[in-house]
Amino acid sequence: MMNDDPLWLAQTALAALADLAFACALGALLLNGWLSREQAFAPASSVFPAREGWRRAARGGVLAAIALVLCNFASLWLQSAAMSGAPILEAGASLWLVATDTHAGIGWSVALAGSLLLLLATSVAPLSMSRIGSAMLAALIVAAGKSAIGHAADAGAFSFAEGVQTLHLLATAVWGGIVIAGAFVLPALDTSVARAVLIRTVARMSRAASMAVALVLLTGVFNAWRGVGGSLAALTASTWGHALIVKIALVAAALGFGALNRWSALPRLQRSASTMDAHTVINVMRIEAVMMALVFVAAAVLSHSVPGSALAG
């Protein structure tokens, strides 16, 4: 049965929003880099028609990174309220103690530090591929901090389970971020003069997302099996199991729409360069983006619910 505690609901909602902001920041950064390679940052009066897409990616990355910083700070505040038992508005009194003297607080502090570094990376325009490398290092710090306060931390600090969860969070953010940010940025490239840029950018997005998906599935299987403790009965006996089933269904739906774009819509667009096929690619990506946003909500419920293996054992 779903937890109806207001603090739990607030923590879960913030976790979902933070995951979504994290993904959007990474996706916008990658799009910024790809469009920067197209010289899309050149003045709008030049021959380069993709400037508006680049501007959307640059601004979206900054806004998403700001949202991530705010969400991480707010999550730490709520964690202080949960640990101290103080009302939410009075949790600030124990904020420093929780952040420095508890495992969860240290994990959140690491994630917050990574978020600030990610914000610095998004503030640079145009974005070079080396700057994207720095941003990915910041993203790795964010993912490591998040994994240190999740269920994987039960296996111990710097454990194999934490490492797998870090990769899972990072890969999911890259996949979801490419899709969600793409659904926001690509419509700005949906003009005849920017069609070639659109085709090349979608092809790059598809290749990067495919690699991220492979890592998501590999690490996801490990996490799911660890969470059920080797018994599939845990899937139907707990909120955690129900959330996992929903997440798997949403991931499958997102994979279906992604495959439709990669193997059908995109090849047609590459052959025809037509407006209709460009609209198809973008519209399918929008549906996939909705699925991925819901995946982050399901993941937040999972991370704030007792694993099925713990209930069974």
Your description of this structure?
- The structure is a single chain.
- This protein is mainly α and 313 residues long.
- The chain has a single domain, classed as Formate dehydrogenase/DMSO reductase fold.
- Helix content is 77%, strand content 0%.
- The protein has 10 helices and no strands.
- It is globular, with a radius of gyration of 20 Å.
- The model has no long low-confidence stretch (mean pLDDT 88).
List keywords for this structure.
single chain; 313 residues; mainly alpha; Formate dehydrogenase/DMSO reductase fold; 10 helices; globular
Secondary structure category? mainly alpha
> Helical percent range?
over 70%
The overall strand count is 0
Total domains, how many? 1
Query: Which series of helices and strands comes N to C?
Result: HHHHHHHHHH
Q: Nearest-angstrom radius of gyration?
A: 20 Å
The end-to-end span amounts to: 18 Å
Which CATH top level class fits?
Mainly Alpha
CATH topology annotation: Formate dehydrogenase/DMSO reductase fold
Binned strand content: under 5%
Largest sheet features: none
CATH A-level architecture: Up-down Bundle
List low-confidence stretches. none
Number of helices: 10
Shape: globular
Mean pLDDT rating: 88
Quaternary assembly: single chain
